[in-house]
Amino acid sequence: MLFKNAMIYRLTKTFQLSSDELIEQLESRRFVPCTGYKPSSFGWVSPLGRSMEDAPLLHEVAACYLLCARREEKVIPPTALNEAILEKVAKIEAVEDRTLRAKEKRNIKENTLAELLPGALAKSKQVLGYISPADGLLVIGTASAPEAELFINCIRDSIGSFTVVPPQVKQKPQDIFTNWLLRRKLPENFQLGNQCDLLDIEETSTVACRRQDLDASEIRSHLEAGKICTRIGILWHGDLSMAVDKDIVLRQIKFESQTEEEENYDQDPIAKLDAEFVTLSLEFSRFLPALFSALGGETLPGAST
């Protein structure tokens, strides 16, 4: 599966750039590795992988634009940093025969961090996302809001104006989820999965149910006691499964009919990417409107052409 998790955003304006125009503008934020005193870096790499020299920073399939960002961060082990700071503090206090003030210790920490950065190892991860101009959607393959924000800002820095908002559904998802569990009646083509999170609003405690029959008396007892459902597992058309939370973040996305062997089959990497991207984007173009409708419908931002 191309995306294990996803955050969905609605474009507030019609996306008018062609793939060639977008590729040209993405170049301004091509990924540059961390060097010297730079602690982190975020930029575009080719979705086709490192083995494809001079590959474009965008892959277009079925009128959708697949983007790939790389995030790199220098990692300094906390123990190494603390030991270096303590050593410097002890040396200064011994020489000057006094206790350093908190502000002085903060300055020492900042200086020590700067000294260690050039030699620190870097860790990196890639984040995929795609723009579907026809659907007016941006889908980012992460469940992390800060990571999604970096991705959006990188697009914005690349092309100038780029405004998106989370889907504005007309009812609170947690109210809908709770109602589904209580009434056991879901919209057409939707079925309950085998997980949910239940929140006690007064005590702010959460009950996480995993691999469990959601019709169990224990879950109903929690709901009748006043808990609400903030995350629920669903199955769409009997195949596409995931957990959806109150912020419409999708997690653990998978096709139930796809075996691990099928997912890891030996195939040309580009052909495999095309197949996975087409499957995901086409399925989401049908599923997401159905999900928004199940949550009371979506209030669309005014689109301009």
Write structural notes for this entry.
The protein has 305 residues and is α+β, with helices and mostly antiparallel strands. It has 3 domains: 6-74 and 120-165, no CATH class; 78-116; 173-247, no CATH class. The chain contains 8 helices and 12 strands. The protein has helices at 19-26, 78-96, 102-116, 145-159, 173-183, 217-224, 260-263, 269-294, and strands at residues 6-11, 40-45, 59-61, 64-75, 121-132, 137-140, 164-165, 190-200, 205-209, 228-236, 240-245, 249-255. Strands 1, 2, 3, 4, 5, 6, 7, 8, 9, 10, 11 and 12 form a 12-stranded antiparallel sheet that branches. It is globular, with a radius of gyration of 24 Å. The protein starts with 5 loop residues before the first strand and ends in an 11-residue tail after the last helix.
Which regions have little confidence, pLDDT < 50, spanning 5+ residues? none
Instruction: Please identify the structural class as seen in this structure.
Output: alpha+beta
**Radius of gyration computed on alpha carbons:** 24 Å
Q: Characterize the largest beta sheet: strand count, sense, and whether it forms a barrel.
A: 12 strands, antiparallel
Spatial gap, N to C terminus: 34 Å
- How confident is the prediction overall: mean pLDDT? 91
Helix content: 25-40%
> What letter string, H or E per element, gives the SSE order?
EHEEEHHEEHEHEEHEEEHH
**Tally of DSSP helical segments:** 8
How many strand units?
Answer: 12
How would you sum up the global shape?
A: globular
Proportion of β residues?
25-35%
How many domains make up the 3D coordinates?
A: 3
